[in-house]
Specification:
The protein has 584 residues and is α/β, with parallel strands linked by helices. It is built from 19 helices and twelve strands. The radius of gyration is 36 Å and the shape is elongated.
């Protein structure tokens, strides 16, 4: 719970004011039974009406004060709980932004969503409970015992014994409840993960008619959550009836013993009424404490999960004062990389190549050859396990990634657009860009014509992930978003796959003519790489060839195989300006 106390300090003034209000409330509640006993034993017994009216007036004034401070305490508790959860949610979101990619892979999107929503809600509920009844309950309990002892020491033994019994029940509650609710939160993680995967791939599910399979797949985690929650609730449900049994059993014993003492003349009737009221207050406060501890059990489980998130390894703080040399490009030197969760085989092995500013370098290889990993390394999502990457004259391992990414732009293979207008999505690359710059970037990406075909043009709203645009339209908007950044190195990760050959060729020509930057082009199609200054051929994570198209046809077997698979042997024999190449 160290994380909780850290954030509780941020709302300490509100918390202290709430405690003062609770103390006043508890004082008023403890005063009422004594005043009532005085009315019965002094005013009613002696027939003194003025005393009865005077004491009743004091009781009404106390109740009015109670109502005012209770109202104020409710406002403070709601405000404090909301502020604390907002601080915690904001910091948790910032922490997720700073997590190392390996840590993001370890947690997964489903559990991160649960932690930043459900777990923080548990903390918020706990805070509201603390600020409403946490101090009031022990004040009522201790104060009630003291007031009961003032009235009659013998009868005061009954609530004291009950307090010990209920304390034992609360300890059992905490011992068995915490691990159960930790399991409930884990089961909720699994449900959220399945739901998120289904929603992100809903079109694929429908296309393959796998709805019934997804329903069955969801039923497993859903049933586990139901079973775990039901079992936890059943175990916790045992404790409240036990506490109520102790409370009402103690009241019965008190009435029996008190009645005998009234009959014998040792105790006044008003004292017994006051004693029963104090007894009820004491035992109800113990019941409140039981509920607080039950909530504490759930919150403790959630805090442990949030602490695990905040303790996860963040990206290191690197030098932010380095000035990049924007005339220098990208240089891979004997780079190797293996994912932390991998089976042991490296994703890249001893890869070396360069891409200068103004050069166009292609990367090609079969599926699983390491192309995406290479892009991730360029974008500083990961650091190489061996070798070095120099970007703009700097060793990427020693420089803050933000400095490097400021001069890079990427068009990913899987385009991600955000809810908003087309104009806002293009300006994602440069939020200060003028409308004329947006139009110029859209024209370079061959997106201007289809954008203007919409009734609202650049103000057309895009749905979640661009669902109301075709695949090719999304790719062209993403290209415009990258171009408006005016990067020194533009990364195209197989981003023209949804375009027809004519549009693809036009965009390639436009980029080659108007975009004055280095280009790293990743593609499965040789046609996209023909005009590259160099082509890097990857095979099973290794660089098996670097050169121009014609050179690689002669020197690289893997490249020849890719060419044959796309164009056939006849095209290989008809290469311009050379004799037929023998495919051996």
């Amino acid at each position: 719970m160290r994380l909780y106390w850290k954030y509780l300090k941020k709302i300490l003034p509100l918390f202290i004011l709430s405690i003062i209000c609770m103390a006043v409330e508890a004082g008023v509640e403890l005063l009422q039974p004594t005043l009532m006993a005085d009315i019965i034993d002094v005013g009613v017994a002696s027939g003194d009406l003025s005393y009865v009216l005077h004491t009743s007036g004091l009781m009404l004034a106390a109740v009015a004060a109670y109502a005012v401070v209770a109202f104020l305490r409710n406002i403070l508790s709601i405000r404090g709980a909301q502020y604390l959860s907002a601080y915690l949610r904001s910091d948790a979101y910032a922490k997720i932004q700073s997590l190392k990619p390996d840590e993001l892979d370890r947690f997964g999107a489903g559990t991160l969503m649960t932690r930043i929503t459900n777990d923080i809600s548990q903390v918020q509920n706990m805070t509201m409970g603390l600020m409403r009844i946490a101090l009031r309950a022990p004040i009522l309990c201790i104060g009630g015992i003291i007031m009961a002892m003032r009235l009659n020491m013998e009868l005061a033994v009954i609530p004291i014994i009950c307090c010990f019994i209920i304390s034992g029940i609360i300890m059992l509650n905490m011992k068995y409840g915490f691990p159960l609710f930790a399991k409930v939160q884990t089961a909720l993680d699994n449900v959220n993960t399945v739901i998120r995967e289904y929603l992100s791939g809903i079109r694929v599910v429908k296309a393959f008619n796998r709805f019934s399979f997804e329903v069955e797949r969801f039923s497993g985690p859903n049933e586990e959550l139901r079973h775990t929650s039901t079992f936890a609730s059943r175990v916790m449900a045992i404790f409240n009836p036990l506490i109520n049994l102790v409370i009402y059993g103690a009241i019965v014993v008190l009435l029996w013993i008190g009645g005998l003492k009234v009959n014998s003349g040792n105790v006044h009737a008003g004292q017994i009424i006051a004693f029963i009221t104090y007894m009820t207050q004491i035992l109800q406060s113990m019941n409140m404490l039981s509920n607080i501890f039950q909530r504490f059990v759930r919150t403790n489980a959630s805090c442990k999960r949030l602490e695990e998130l905040f303790d996860a390894e963040s990206l290191p703080e690197l030098d932010k004062n380095v000035k990049p040399d924007l005339e220098k490009g990208l240089d891979f030197h004997n780079v190797s990389f293996a994912y932390a969760q991998s089976t042991g085989r490296a994703a890249l092995t001893d890869v070396s190549f360069s891409c200068g500013v103004g050069e166009r370098v292609g990367v090609i290889g079969a599926t699983g050859s390491g192309k995406t990993t290479l892009i991730n390394l360029v974008l500083q999502f990961y650091q190489p396990t061996a070798g070095s990457i120099r970007i703009f004259g700097m060793d990427a391992a020693d420089v803050d990634p933000g400095i490097i990414r400021q001069h890079l732009a990427v068009v990913p293979q899987r385009v991600v657009l955000f809810t908003g207008t087309i104009l806002e999505n293009i300006r994602w690359g440069n939020e200060t860009a003028s409308f004329e710059e947006v139009v110029a970037a859209a024209k370079a990406a061959h997106a201007h014509d289809f954008i203007m075909s919409f009734p609202e043009g650049y103000d057309t709203l895009i749905g979640h992930s661009g669902v109301n645009l075709s695949g090719g339209q999304r790719q062209r908007v993403a290209i415009a978003r990258a171009l408006i950044k005016k990067p020194r190195i533009l990364i195209l990760d197989d981003c023209l796959s949804a375009l027809d050959a004519l549009t693809e060729a036009s965009i390639r020509d436009e980029l080659a003519r108007d975009v004055k930057c280095g280009s790293l082009v990743v593609s499965q199609k040789i046609s996209s790489l023909l005009d590259c200054d160099r082509i890097v051929v990857l095979d099973d994570g290794a660089c098996v060839g670097v050169g121009k198209h014609t050179e690689l046809l002669e020197t690289c077997q893997v490249y020849r195989d890719i060419y044959l698979s796309q164009y056939g042997a006849e095209a290989l024999h008809n290469q311009p300006g050379k004799e037929a190449v023998h495919h051996g």
